[in-house]
DNA sequence: TCTACTGTACTATATAAGTAGTACACCGCA
DNA sequence: TGCGGTGTACTACTTATATAGTACAGTAGA
């Protein structure tokens, strides 16, 4: 049960990591992701929690299941992730960062300093 | 029960808002914050949830209680909040934003564009 | 003193999240 | 065919959140 935040559901954090890995190129289209039991051991998490993660990713069209074989990355997984992530980044994360910076008296230049 | 995210405990989101209000200057040092029952009605939340929020803020030294009177903003509340927020902003939020931007192919200039 | 507010402390219920374990059906391969 | 790995579907238990309601003690002011 290593390095998971306690302020967010583990199965959602795991889903984000899988998506990160797909963006990084660790898992490519058509490729198989670790099995439920494999990943549960790898991350020290219960198998049912992995199932919840894969269920979520499946309903988002990121992966698809082949009974008896495993879960596989869909062809448009990368595009779907990029689309959702970009939208959230622009419409939620950046505005919140701007608000926090204003509240904390941190200048845009100071922020730019730390973005490299 | 208006505008609370479902990915984080309500009592923690409420605590963040109280801190925001203190930074904004809505509540100043020595000033009284809304009573448990008042705030529960204002936000459409159960009174026990407000108690949890105020318990958390109390143990963080942001507010202090006077039985029969209410909860009051401590003298160093603002400093405490700024300290914690700045640390988290610099060490957690900004690095995560940088990572996301790199992953999504968003340039620093493009980010700076949205920070105003 | 009385009243109306305050914090405080309970009990009870419901749901989500996570863990633990078992069982069964499907698939590829030897 | 049999075996091992796979997804799938359960039950059971625990904890954290959140709600609902009640009760009691401290405080200020009429």
Total strands of chain A: the figure is 2
What is the count of structural domains of chain A? 2
* CATH topology assignment of the largest domain in chain A: Arc Repressor Mutant, subunit A
User: Architecture of the largest domain in chain A in CATH?
Assistant: Orthogonal Bundle
- Strand order in the largest sheet of chain A: 1-2
- CATH top-level class of the largest domain in chain A: Mainly Alpha
CATH fourth-tier homologous superfamily of the largest domain in chain A = Winged helix-like DNA-binding domain superfamily/Winged helix DNA-binding domain
SSE order of chain A: HHHEEHH
Work out the largest interface and the residue count of each chain.
Answer: A-B, 28 and 28 residues
The biggest beta sheet of chain A is recorded as: 2 strands, antiparallel
* Poorly predicted regions of chain A: none
Kindly describe this structure.
Chain A has a two-stranded antiparallel sheet. In chain A, α1 packs across α3 (47-59) and α2 (36-42) crosses α3. With 116 residues, chain A is mainly α. The first copy, chain A, starts with 9 loop residues before the first helix and ends with a helix. The radius of gyration of chain A is 17 Å and the shape is elongated. The first copy, chain A, folds into two domains: 10-75, Winged helix-like DNA-binding domain superfamily/Winged helix DNA-binding domain (Arc Repressor Mutant, subunit A); 79-115. Chain A has five helices and two strands, in the order αααββαα. The structure holds a DNA duplex (30 and 30 nucleotides).
Task: Provide key terms for this protein.
two-stranded antiparallel sheet, DNA-binding, 5 helices, Arc Repressor Mutant, subunit A, mainly alpha, homodimer
